[in-house]
Amino acid sequence: MNATPNPLHTALSLAASGVPALPLRRGKVPFGNCTGCADNACGGRPNMKVPGPCRCPAPCHGWAAATTDPAVIVSPPWAAAWRQAVCVAYHPGGARLTVVDLDDADAIAWARGTLPATRTVPTTRGEHWIYRGAMTSRNAARPGIDIKSTMAYTRWLGPGTGALAALPDAVRALAVKAPPPAPGASQTLPGPVRDGQGRCPHRTPAFLERGIAMAVQRITEASSAVHATVYRTFLAVLSRHGRCGCLTDTHVARLFTAAQAKGETPRHCTDAWTNARTALGM
């Protein structure tokens, strides 16, 4: 791991740009809890998965310690950390950013064929693709791909090249875990996605009809977050019937019609369906 030549200077520069910074010690990890915060005595903000910093003035809470306040960065509680720091990290979500951490050539190839171009930063093994907008973080979203945004930190490796693009649905989809199969459903549904006719081999036609009706109802009754509801509903339908060939154009049209009745455009419906298939590896 290459060390940052002047961690304190870099942190102050990031803070001045509105990017919350924090020091990292050897091993690319944050500093451990101080005595007063050990064993969650202070409430353990990041350890308890609660957004926001602890009241402790020391940089001992990982991503939650990241700050844009220069007075905090140069304060005595941080001084010892900067003397030991080897590099600087930042909290992407705190800057309304999302980092797609691509760890190898296969991950980079997938991103180039799937995601819109955006600002990129070379890393030791791969690349960081940075998008404008925050989302839920998720490690191992795909093989070789981590998502760093809210409640996460990533190492500062420079400003990168290229213009920041808006966070696309294809990246948001990576943070959505596919729902588990229904009880009694096959755990492995081999074969390609087919748009043709055919009965579902693991459920009766009545089960499929009931599932489509419930999906339409879920979309129709959405009072907020319609965009996310449509995507998650598509994901749920595909996770159960996307590989067995029982979905027809008529079924898909019913879902799209329900989504469009809630204000979604045909383009968004198509994108959400495609992104759901991508998230499930179809």
Describe this entry's structure for a reader:
The chain has helices spanning 7-16, 70-73, 76-84, 105-114, 169-172, 205-220, 226-241, 249-261, 266-279, and strands at residues 21-24, 87-90, 97-102, 119-122, 127-132, 138-142, 145-148, 154-155, 165-166. The chain folds into 3 domains: 7-88, no CATH class; 94-167; 205-279, no CATH class. The protein is α+β, with helices and mostly antiparallel strands. It contains 9 helices and 9 strands. Strands 3, 4, 5, 6, 7 and 9 form a 6-stranded mixed beta sheet that branches. The chain has a 3-stranded antiparallel beta sheet with strand order 1-2-8.
Topology:
Blueprint: H1 7-16, E1 21-24, H2 70-73, H3 76-84, E2 87-90, E3 97-102, H4 105-114, E4 119-122, E5 127-132, E6 138-142, E7 145-148, E8 154-155, E9 165-166, H5 169-172, H6 205-220, H7 226-241, H8 249-261, H9 266-279
Parallel strand pairs: 5-9
Antiparallel strand pairs: 1-2, 2-8, 3-5, 3-7, 4-5, 6-7
Helix pairs in contact: 6-7, 6-8, 7-9
The tally of strands reads: 9
Beta-sheet strand percentage?
Answer: 5-15%
Structural class: alpha+beta
**Helix-strand pattern:** HEHHEEHEEEEEEHHHHH
Count of helical stretches: 9
Low-confidence region ranges: 46-51, 178-199
Terminal CA distance reads: 36 Å
